[in-house]
Amino acid sequence: MNARLSTALMHWDYIAPLLTPASTEDEYQALVESLDALLDSGAADEAHPLAGLAGMVGDLVSAYEQKHYPMPGEMSGVEALAFFMERDNLRQQDLPEIGNQAKVSEVLSGRRAINLRQAKSLAERFGVPLALFAG
């Protein structure tokens, strides 16, 4: 085994969390804190010895954010609604903001559009901009 690999193995318990995708909010927060510390130490400069690590940690943070905090411009209102339903383990009958289960089903299938009143209620419930559902 070469010397670099041997050294990495000796320190793997400290390195592994920085190279492992976050699967929980706590792991994500730890990655964000690590990235902040790396950037504060100058790793944003490509000549810095930890610049590559900062890039990898940044990619992991970005991947978690894209999965768990999608940006409004990246999805339709119906896609956002489906996302929030899955995230919060909601059923169609759990969305009185839209109406009864049949109306929710029509919205999710694209047969009915989300109206302004529904969009306002959904935005308030999920704490997101109105444009996510009204746009």
UniProtKB/TrEMBL annotation:
Task: Give an example GO molecular function.
Answer: core promoter sequence-specific DNA binding
Q: Where is the HTH cro/C1-type domain?
A: 104-133
CDD domains documented for this protein: HTH_XRE
Q: Origin, by domain of life?
A: Bacteria
Q: Name one GO biological process term.
A: regulation of DNA-templated transcription
Q: Which InterPro entries match?
A: Antitox_HigA, Cro/C1-type_HTH
Q: What is this protein called?
A: Putative transcription regulator with HTH domain
Write down the species.
Methylobacter tundripaludum (strain ATCC BAA-1195 / DSM 17260 / SV96)
